Amino acid sequence: MSQILVRQLAPEAHRALKARAHKLHRSAESVAREILESSLLPDSGLGFGDRMAAFWSDADLTGIDLERDKTPYEPIDLK
Fold it and tell me: Name one GO biological process term (predicted).
């Protein structure tokens, strides 16, 4: 793993980083790593549904007939 040292970071940015890390119960280093990776690394572009469709695209579903359960649901009581 590579390391990087960031000099002359604005005090406001440092405070914001520390505050975010505290809020997430994580280290400032791990939050900074996540910020850098999410902003610099390319996104796969595929959402969950697209990934699931790709995963099952080669599945042989011949003879499988799934019916939706149309039974009314019971609303939950949050009292």
Answer: regulation of DNA-templated transcription
